[in-house]
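S.,

Sequence below, as promised.
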Amino acid sequence: MSGVVLIDNVGAAVSARAPHNAVVAAVNAATNETAVVILGIIFVAGHLRGRVVLAIALRRGRSVARAGAIVLGISQSLHLAAAVSGNDALDLVGWGLIAVGIGFASYAILRLSNDEWDIPPLGPRPSVATKDTCDANPGARTHGLVRSRLFSSP
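The prediction came back faster than expected:
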């Protein structure tokens, strides 16, 4: 909700051709709310953790080379360090490493054949329990449940 308020306040200030100070005040008022700060921390933590988990999963699944997984794993941390420090060169390196790591994953996907792309079917569907199958196997848990609910005499 705070993000919507921020966009609305900035949009209103800009459309009214407000002075720069008014726009800065509107942005500061919206971004200094506790909810915005907490959600921002959750967002950043999720990005960091998600990129590392993606790199680990790609490597453990042997989908990408070790170098691709390492590059992908450290890229988001470099981007965060650059954002905190204001270092544009480090940010360029971080985003470049993200592109390289995603390139490794993209190459792995492009190497897959059509049959490898999707998981195989689970196999034949299980048969539906009938009175005959319940009578033939009275000790089965599911069949006993079916029997007690469907085939009980009134």
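The chain has eight helices and no strands.

Coffee later?
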